[in-house]
Amino acid sequence: MSQEWNIKSRAHVCSICGQALEDRSAVTSALREQPGGYERFDSHQACWKAQVRDWEPFSQWDGIYMAPKKEEKKEALKKEDAGEILRKLVTLDDPAMKNVVYVLAVMLERSKILVERDAKAVEGGIRRVYEDRKNGDTFVILDPRLRMENLSEVQQQVVALLSGTKTLGEVAADETAPEAPQEDDAQHQEPAQEGGASAH
């Protein structure tokens, strides 16, 4: 597991006292970093405050517990939405897709589907903790600090996934394909005229 991202579902009972969490009650959620991934805690705020811990959370936030509701069966969609694709990519845990995963997460945040709860600087980028506003699932996503010149290409890949014109496998293959060798531009540039504008 690369552990560049991770997803944890919200609990429906207090992680400390074991009692059921009540609908629309205040809860404290936290992530504990472990060698094999992240351990998630959801608890009554009073239980969290009263608990004695010998460890510091990787991330911690207060929220409102929303009990799951049964939804009517909807007609299956031909195209997957951004949330479904993000979940599949997180499950696959393919480092080659880290840019696509991050752009999808940002799209979902802008659409008010995810909310950012925390951010931690780590080697290779920033780990951002997102929570699904509807079901409370937590996504730990690596922000690879994309360069502007790379953003357009990644956005095109995301659009291709959402439109169904490319599969996850095809996009992953694009990401891992070696770049074509480029000739040294300096050898082919006309020398700048004295007093004129440089090609660079």
3D structure, described in words:
There is one protein chain. With 200 residues, the protein is α+β, with helices and mostly antiparallel strands. It has one domain. The protein is built from six helices and seven strands; from the N terminus they run E-E-E-H-E-H-H-E-E-E-H-H-H. The chain has helices at residues 45-50, 82-92, 98-110, 148-163, 168-176, 185-188; strands at residues 6-8, 25-34, 37-44, 59-65, 114-122, 125-132, 138-143. Strands 1-7-6-5 form a four-stranded antiparallel β-sheet, with helices on one face. The protein has a three-stranded antiparallel β-sheet with strand order 3-2-4. The longest helix has 16 residues, at 148-163. Mean pLDDT is 79; it is low at 74-79 and 179-200.
Structural class: alpha+beta
Radius of gyration: 22 Å
The string of secondary-structure elements, in order, is EEEHEHHEEEHHH
In which range does the helix fraction lie?
Answer: 25-40%
Topology:
Layout: E1 6-8, E2 25-34, E3 37-44, H1 45-50, E4 59-65, H2 82-92, H3 98-110, E5 114-122, E6 125-132, E7 138-143, H4 148-163, H5 168-176, H6 185-188
Helix pairs in contact: 2-3, 3-4
Q: What are the defining features of this structure?
A:
single chain; 200 residues; 3-stranded antiparallel β-sheet
Structure, briefly:
The protein is α+β, with helices and mostly antiparallel strands and 200 residues long. Helices cover 30% and strands 26% of the residues.
